[in-house]
Amino acid sequence: MKYDNVLLAHGGGGLLTGQLIAEKFLPLFSNPYLEKMEDGAVFNIGDQKFCFTTDSYVVNPIFFPGGDIGALAVNGTVNDLAMCGGRPLFLSAGFILEEGFPMAHLETIIASMSEAAKKAGVAIVTGDTKVVPRGAADGIFINTAGVGVINYIGNVSVKAIEPGDVVILNGTMGDHGVTILNQRQALSFDMNITSDTAPLGGLVEVILDASAHIHAMRDATRGGLGAVIAEMAVQSQTIIEIDEARIPVHDEVRGFCEVLGIDPLFLANEGKMVVFCSEADALAVLAAMKSHEYGKDAAIIGTVKERDRGRFVLKTIIGGLREIDLPSGELVPRIC
Amino acid sequence: MKYDNVLLAHGGGGLLTGQLIAEKFLPLFSNPYLEKMEDGAVFNIGDQKFCFTTDSYVVNPIFFPGGDIGALAVNGTVNDLAMCGGRPLFLSAGFILEEGFPMAHLETIIASMSEAAKKAGVAIVTGDTKVVPRGAADGIFINTAGVGVINYIGNVSVKAIEPGDVVILNGTMGDHGVTILNQRQALSFDMNITSDTAPLGGLVEVILDASAHIHAMRDATRGGLGAVIAEMAVQSQTIIEIDEARIPVHDEVRGFCEVLGIDPLFLANEGKMVVFCSEADALAVLAAMKSHEYGKDAAIIGTVKERDRGRFVLKTIIGGLREIDLPSGELVPRIC
Lengths: 336, 336
Fold this sequence. Notes:
- The first copy, chain A, has 2 domains: 31-150, CATH 3.30.1330.10; 158-324, Phosphoribosyl-aminoimidazole Synthetase, Chain A, domain 2.
- Chain A is 31% helix and 27% strand.
- The first copy, chain A, has helices at 15-29, 32-35, 69-83, 103-120, 175-183, 201-210, 224-236, 251-260, 282-290; strands at residues 41-45, 48-57, 63-64, 67-68, 86-98, 123-132, 140-150, 166-169, 214-219, 238-243, 273-277, 299-307, 311-315, 321-324.
- A 7-stranded mixed sheet of chain A has the order 9-11-8-12-10-13-14. A 5-stranded mixed sheet of chain A has the order 1-2-7-5-6. Chain A has a two-stranded antiparallel sheet with strand order 3-4.
- In chain A, helix 3 (69-83) packs parallel to helix 4 (103-120).
- Chains A and B meet through helix 1, strand 1, strand 2, strand 5 and helix 4 of A and helix 1, strand 1, strand 2, strand 5 and helix 4 of B.
């Protein structure tokens, strides 16, 4: 289908985002780095392998239980570097502020970014600030880009996924999505759930140390686990089968989702990732993940079946097999 | 003075932008890379020196004579890398789109970015697209970050400026600012002036080849030549004397400025830079610049006098000496 105007779903991380990239960006920005469609670009300069990535953050509200737009902006980009198998080193920060934005909010956000950067072991080394007149933006938008080095022996890429690989998830699904949704509009369920925003660089180091056969990693942000697995199935040209009963979900998140009629599978996370590794190393990787602060609820949730045009098959809790398509949009606009 | 809310001038590249950075960002993002306050961060990984920079583009209107927001977003970041003495290699692109933004406009902008990237010799290797609901942004904002390598023998830094250095400018002032201003509101003078947006990487290579004593370079964007020289005087702790009569300005730009009562010294440029080099090499650098497409109107415009707390002294056309302070804001919001 052809769209004359940009829809919210074009930014949702689902089907329309994929189409926008494949049809508009790739043909013109054509180069082998971008075409890999990973969380970041990987390139060599001299003998050293680098990764480089960017994300803009437009989350609404900007402050929420468990974090704020600043922490998200640091952790999100740190995590995209980590997903390339890289060690995050340096970040840039670009601020677009609306005239009249409270200086106290900006100070809180800067402090939060500073704390998140320290925790993630990265330095924010360059930046930019633009201010637009009242009404031309909604408060604050932050872009971060990041540079990291890759020293891992293997090639971490969705293209390296093989039949037989095991899929491991590092923890509960939907916490960030539910937290943001609950802040919106008239919703305000009394919950103990907070955003899971966290830097995953340390967890990734532990994972890479545990196995020389880590094939792919990706964080389950916009579009949730559902979008990520559906996308990776197509990119790896395999059937990925996930066992719904094994996906960790907090009871409160499950309850919230039942009331609203939404599926935690498609809710955004900001500190959760999937790892694809060889079957032989799966238990070692799982054990390593469980030893880490951000992996203690890790679980093996599925396996990669045969080569295919790319399908995500969910073994549902009630026992059936359901094919999951890339969601057509994000459940919650401005989730990150 | 303390501000409770963000003002337009905080994004103008002048005094308030400097205060915002010095008082809010630097204390919390504290690290030696950021504290240098150059156009980009410079760091070593192994034996290789790198530069890394970012800018967000919020220009209004998004299409204008001589360019558009896409060309600006590529050239601006390429130029910041070049100003570090670097060879620009890789760019990221982060788009924030307003729901309903015309897809045809997006296509034009992507094509323009692609063309600008080819011309500048860089690849756009990673990206991100966010869409916000109608009214939450004004059409399109683009962030680019860039990575380059530095192979120059010298240390290109505002701190390397020395008394006796010669200041060379590569061409006419104010073309971009006048072009954007003329598109705004009721203004529409009949002019042949177009934005000077251009990638300066090639010109910088020629400059660096011409002399081993290039001390500093900076592009004169937001706040114009006035803001750049005033800032560099303070950062280098010298007196910089500029001869107003030697600053190239198109007649039409001068006429436009006289009618509106503004000074081309403070108008933004998107393809203009100043070079600080040793007196002995100044003529060689000038000749090299004049041989290049983007330096054919190059001129020696001033010299660095003694060490000082940092002052920009303008020798005016009528013969007096006028001290120029960092402008308190940008003449034109959303100029880039």
